[in-house]
Amino acid sequence: MLTKEEYIKLYEKYIAGHCSAEELSQLQDYQDKFQLKETRWDERTMGDKAAVKARLYARLHKEMQTDKEDQPVYWQSMRKWLGYAAAAIILVIGGLYWSSVENVPKPFGEGSQAIVIEPGGDKAVLVLDDGTEVLLNELHLGNVTINGKVWANKAGEGELHYGAMSEEEIRYHTIRTPRGGQYQVTLADGTKIWLNASSSIRFPTAFIGTERLVEIEGEVFFDVQKDTGKPFVVKSDNQEITVLGTQFNVMAYPDEEGVKTSLIEGKVAVDIAGSSYMLKPGERSVYDKTKRQVTKETFDPEEILAWQEGYFMFNEESIEHVMRKIARWYDVEVEYKGNMKGKLFSGTVSRFGQVDEVLDMLELTGTVTFKIEGRRILVMG
């Protein structure tokens, strides 16, 4: 059976029209592989367990019986099940783990929405130290030349590489992703970074002196090139992180109640409000900006790697936190009506389906409903 990563790659190959007959057969076989298993259930926050199960099974049965007109039976099946992958590879809603290729694109709610809200993609702005702004997604592949000077290389769509530069050419650049954007950057020392939506990093075009200093906002994943003689320092909201060579993720959005630094491998020192905290792999620091308190906790690495690999992963998160992630990626506004207290969601859903596909999955729990008006989502409890 295909792994999740293999399935995603094969699905993308299918969308591009490059699948062989054997690969199409693999995708066809995958459609029947799903299982339902239970985890901890809290009826107060998750709703009636039997009712949720019934909705899930009814939804699956209905979609399996729906055929596309004017298509051969084989391609009806392929399109249906391959469409499912756009919304969920492994879905966990309200305590039910549903491992499936699930959900076909369709109008959301009672009627079709006037605007199709597409997912985000590879786009970012490069800001030079003189304020000049360059839309990276509009540049051709190859050297990035501005005012006759080569600053970097666009190695691929959504990927920028900086190389070695002479000391007199060093400048400070900023790369900023908008809502609905993501980007990958390789700094001059070989450190790789991934910017999530609505994030930024300010960095020198070359590193000199005794440390490698960058400043960030939003969510950024780092794979730091090791250099024992020159620590890598990351400044973000109310904290400073010092590493030599490691992989870690920092989430420091202004609209979030906390700043989270999650360590995947190696070790880091996190300085927050005058105190220092050492993290081991699998640990993260959480700075509560309201209480001005710091805690350490363990986490699932898949939760941190999820957004880079193309999916949302919710882990008993409030509906407000879930919707902030959705709002940043789909560039939408969110409003609430009703009581949202105690509504927790856990799940793994593709970031590359239309927004109504993700909302439809959350709605299956029976704890919330949604209404889409233009680029505004109304969440009703």
UniProtKB/TrEMBL annotation:
InterPro entries: FecR (IPR006860), FecR_C (IPR032508), Ferrdict_sens_TM (IPR012373). This is DUF4974 domain-containing protein. It holds the Pfam family FecR. It comes from Sphingobacterium micropteri. It comes from the Bacteria. Residues 311-379 form the Protein FecR C-terminal domain. Residues 174-268 form the FecR protein domain. The chain crosses the membrane at residues 81-98. Keywords: Membrane, Transmembrane, Transmembrane helix. The lineage of its organism: Bacteria, Pseudomonadati, Bacteroidota, Sphingobacteriia, Sphingobacteriales.
